[in-house]
Amino acid sequence: MDKIVKHPSVLDGKNPSELRGDSITNDRYFCKDFMDKEWNHMWTKVWLIAGREIQIEEPGDYIVHDLVKESVIIVRQKDGSIKGFYNSCAHRGQRLVECDSSQDSFRCPYHDWQFGLNGDVISVPDEDDYPQGSPIGKRKLVEVRVDTWDGFIFYTMSDEAPDLMDYLDPIPEIYKNHNFKDQIRAQWVRVELDVNWKFFCDNFNESYHTRFVHPQVPSVIDQDHFTSRYEMFPKGHARIIQMGRPSLRDRVNEDEDHPFKMILESWGVDVSKYPDYETLSEQGWTDLKKAKRKLYKEKGYHHYENLSDEELTESPFQFIFPNIAMGVQADGCILLNWFPHPTDPEKCFFDLWDMGYPIGGSAKGIGKTGRENDQAFTSTSAGIGKKDEANDQEFLSRTKVNPVKLQEVELDFRDYDGGKGVKDLWDHVVYQDWQLTDGLRRGVRSKGYQEPYLAAQETRVRYFHETLHDYLNGKPPK
Ligand code: FES
């Protein structure tokens, strides 16, 4: 049924016999000792996403990425390359910068040592007062390894970690027909939540909850476990591929507008020809592929050029170990990234990126944060793209209630406030996940916590924990 090509290194993500069956203890969700082990043996060994290349287009542009005890600076060099440094002065360790910006050099706020973009010390006050010799030419900022994949910037604090492409394997090859670098990040919201970061690793490694927690999804993405494909990759990454059509078990009431019909109609498909719900789902799904293939050029969907027919409609949800999830669709991507609080194992931070392709052109040239693309218009399976008649602006419609303009945005760090701080996201799927966090945090602390009793479709949850155990035991996957 699903023709997205299976990569040879993939394990059956619905087969627990592929795994050891390690216990998933509850101390991992609240114990400081467990948190410290994760820092020493996992966070400092993996590749972490720091942002997007479009954030640092010009020499001197930099990103400050804070993670638990560390902070790194990712800076565009004069030759166009990217370097990363620990955010710690080479004199006596003062943190150099606090937030993203752009400058020709870094000046320490303590004693005014000055560093070039390449990390070298270029000036110090009282240079002749160093009996051991001037620090210029001797001292420099300590580097971290930086690399990119399709516009995403990653770094690692480990010298032993494999190269990024090897670490991500086979993800870059699997998504080679997409161009994530050409997408526009139209929403970038961060919240602090009262739950251990691994709640989201568990949550995004199963879709068992989605039919219940996200009732708006099955009308456009088939949530049935028997029609989906589950995959686990050798380095701890995993995904589910679901069909971009209505689930037959979750029918929209006859008196409601059906979102899948609206998608079909937007591609010129006559939905009145479908005699029943089954035909709407099955034949409509096939007709949608054909219509997209036939009409994409004239409608300006040039990003379909290299997509297979399956990629035009299907909905892979990709987990990248340890803390990234990507909902990849033909017209865009939702990227989720979550990471621990610096001191409290029962808190974490969560970033929501909503990204979409411009229609009728390329994101190239749209440029830096805040510059608009007035031509852009896209739609997603979570809601049909909607045009605001009042001002003729275009929107990325991840939520039906509050679509956002398709323009590059900066970080929007919200006070979650029990959900009251993100009212504009109340109909967004991640809000529905966020609302579970407080109950999960309290529940896993109970004396009544038991070893999880996992469905086959939750096998990836166990795979995540076993990969984590491998890191904690000093044996990361090769
Ligand atoms: Fe930075 Fe002294 S700690 S110049």
Calculate the terminal CA-CA distance, rounded to whole Å.
Answer: 32 Å
Number of domains: 2
Q: Biggest β-sheet, characterized? A: 9 strands, mixed
CATH architecture of the largest domain: Alpha-Beta Complex
CATH C-level class of the largest domain: Alpha Beta
Notes on the structure:
The protein contains eleven helices and 21 strands. It is of the alpha+beta class and 478 residues long. It has two domains: 311 residues, Naphthalene 1,2-dioxygenase Alpha Subunit, Chain A, domain 1; 111 residues, Rieske [2Fe-2S] iron-sulphur domain (Rieske Iron-sulfur Protein). A nine-stranded mixed β-sheet has the order 1-13-14-15-16-17-18-12-21. About 7% of the residues have low confidence. The protein binds FE2/S2 (inorganic) cluster. FE2/S2 (inorganic) cluster binds next to loops. The site of FE2/S2 (inorganic) cluster has 9 residues, from loops.
Structural topology:
Layout: E1 11-12, H1 32-43, E2 48-52, E3 61-67, E4 70-76, E5 82-86, E6 101-102, E7 106-107, E8 114-115, E9 121-123, E10 143-149, E11 152-156, H2 164-168, H3 171-174, E12 184-193, H4 198-203, H5 210-213, E13 229-232, E14 238-242, H6 259-266, H7 277-295, H8 309-313, E15 315-320, E16 324-329, E17 332-340, E18 348-356, E19 395-396, E20 404-405, E21 412-414, H9 429-434, H10 437-443, H11 459-472
Parallel strand pairs: 12-21
Antiparallel strand pairs: 1-13, 2-11, 3-4, 3-6, 4-5, 5-10, 7-8, 8-9, 10-11, 12-18, 13-14, 14-15, 15-16, 16-17, 17-18, 19-20
The structure holds FE2/S2 (inorganic) cluster.
